[in-house]
Known about the structure:
The protein is mostly helical and about 120 residues long. It has a domain at about 85-124. It is built from 3 helices and no strands.
Amino acid sequence: MAAKTKKKSKNAKNTNTKNDNIQKTQVAESKKTSVAKDDKKSTDSKDKKNTKKSDKKKKPNIFVRMLDFVKGVFSELKKVNWLTKEELAKSSGFVAGFVAIFTFLIWIIDSGLGALAALLIGLK
């Protein structure tokens, strides 16, 4: 019994030191990225002016963009998993049955409320 507790405490110490090492490396990495961000901020303002002018020149005309859009649509349609005839018939039958049941229920409720309204109007 005592041997088991010693093993657990050793494992706990190992995990604590591992967690400490991980935290230290994460802190070091975050410091590096914050320094890099500060360096980028100074050059970003200059680059924004230059990219705005170059973006207008690089934009393709409307016909090229429409052609790219249509090509993208066809490539996405090739990736679609289409239903088989049996799956389509089963799904369509389920939807038609569901619509029929709710149409019947709404008709019953509407008839009942209409009869109730006629009864109340007739009492006055």
